[in-house]
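Archive maintenance. Older records in this collection stored only the sequence; we are now back-filling the structure field for every entry so that each record is complete. The fields below show one back-filled record exactly as it appears after the update. Entries are processed alphabetically, and DUF4296 domain-containing protein is next in the queue.

ARCHIVE ENTRY
Title: DUF4296 domain-containing protein
Organism field: Pedobacter jamesrossensis
Length field: 199
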Amino acid sequence: MRKINNLAAIKATNSVLNLRMRRLISVLTAVIMLCGCKPKIPKDIIEPEKMQKILYDIHVADGYISTILQPDSSKKVAAAYYKGIYEKFGIDSAQYNKSMNYYYANPKDLDKIYKNISKTLESQKKTLEKVDSLQKAKIEKARIDKEKLKKAKDSLAKVPAKLKQEKIDKEKAEKEKLKKTKDSLRKIQVGLKRAPAVK
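Back-filled structure field:
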């Protein structure tokens, strides 16, 4: 009896496991089908990673071009920059425009591209700020060193003058001492001459 009960329990457990496995397999199949049905980017459209690099370069070029005040010059410079960017990535303006139209029609993809571009720009901004702060620190250190050097030169220039003044003061003091000594000797001589001679 026990064997029959055990056998029945094992069969019931197996059927529950089989049912769960079937459900799991059907769910996994559905997920794979949904992921596999994702629309692919057409072959004549620039891939998102490459498009991100192209747009980054174009926006950096646009930033520079916007600083040019003369419209004719800025148009010439822009054409040259865009041509260089197209050559760098092996595309032409027609393919670029067609790809931009595709991404305008698929704003989620374009949004992802621009989020990545923003991250790259932010990273470069931080790098430039670090470089700028280091340059400012170097300039400030150079200024401080220059001031220290000037002070050292000034104090060195004062040393000869100070030494010269000390020498003059010392000579003057020696002359006064010598004069006092001479005066003392004269007084002694005068005093000796006036004193009665001792016999």
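Update note: The two ends are 168 Å apart (CA to CA). The helical segments are 2-36, 48-65, 71-89, 93-105, 107-194.
Entry marked complete.
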